[in-house]
């Protein structure tokens, strides 16, 4: 249980025995997620511990129990749960094997769209012929979220940061494109197995604007065989 909550067994044991310090909001969020609590149960836990619950809006990072249960059953498939800004909240081991551990980032760099325009290595995982389309897609997607969430949103903050730091982003932002959807087939260039063509299915939690992204290959194709190799790499990430 302590592992699921990202804390030491000693600390969790002291909390259970009412001998530990009052948990911080960050620690309570980890406990709620580790216990697979619903939003109502999470809020109740916060109030029991003397804290106000986090806001129930698109910025919430609490993953619904149902979405977590689906992810937990995808241990042999690359999959991840992301926010509407492309911030990875949880990955399967094969998801880590495919894209690396994208939960490790902090600050604005947690957003895959922000990294696309600010980090030179962010595009290495994708086929070069896809880069121009993905640049337009990220800009159009962020514009849609800014319009939906308003000028005081985190999306608007990211857009302002990118306008200040990326000439490329300023150029595509000025095109005012909207409605550019991600393509179902994604072309990866993996550092260990090479080119991969993977279909991406997306399951959306409408209450929290989270998406479960699942990557699969057509059986019998070269990409399917390469995913079997990645499964070995994914298994190694567990140890």
TrEMBL record:
InterPro entries: Cro/C1-type_HTH, Lambda_DNA-bd_dom_sf, MLTR_LBD
Coiled coil residues, start to end: none
CDD domains in the record: HTH_XRE
Domain HTH cro/C1-type, residue spans: 1-42
One Pfam family linked to the record: HTH_31
Protein name: Helix-turn-helix transcriptional regulator
């Amino acid at each position: 249980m302590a592992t699921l909550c990202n804390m030491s067994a000693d600390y969790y044991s002291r909390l259970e025995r009412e001998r530990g310090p009052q948990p911080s909001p960050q620690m309570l969020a980890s406990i709620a997620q580790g216990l697979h609590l619903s939003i109502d149960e999470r809020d109740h836990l916060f109030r029991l511990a003397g804290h106000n619950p986090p806001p129930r809006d698109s910025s919430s990072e609490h993953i619904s129990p149902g979405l977590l249960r689906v992810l937990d059953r995808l241990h042999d498939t690359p999959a991840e749960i992301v926010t509407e800004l492309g911030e990875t909240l949880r990955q399967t081991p094969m998801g880590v094997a495919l894209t690396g551990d994208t939960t490790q980032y902090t600050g604005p760099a947690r957003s895959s769209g922000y990294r696309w325009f600010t980090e030179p290595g962010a595009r290495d995982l994708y086929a070069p012929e896809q880069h121009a389309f993905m640049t337009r897609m990220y800009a159009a997607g962020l514009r849609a979220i800014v319009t939906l969430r308003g000028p005081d949103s985190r999306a608007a903050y990211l857009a302002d940061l990118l306008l200040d730091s990326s000439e490329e982003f300023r150029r595509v932002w000025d095109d005012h494109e909207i409605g550019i959807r991600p393509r179902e087939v994604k072309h990866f260039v993996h550092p260990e197995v090479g080119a991969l063509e993977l279909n991406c299915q997306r399951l959306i939690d409408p209450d929290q604007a989270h998406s479960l992204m699942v990557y699969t290959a057509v059986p019998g194709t070269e990409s399917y065989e390469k995913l079997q190799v990645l499964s070995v790499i994914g298994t190694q990430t567990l140890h």
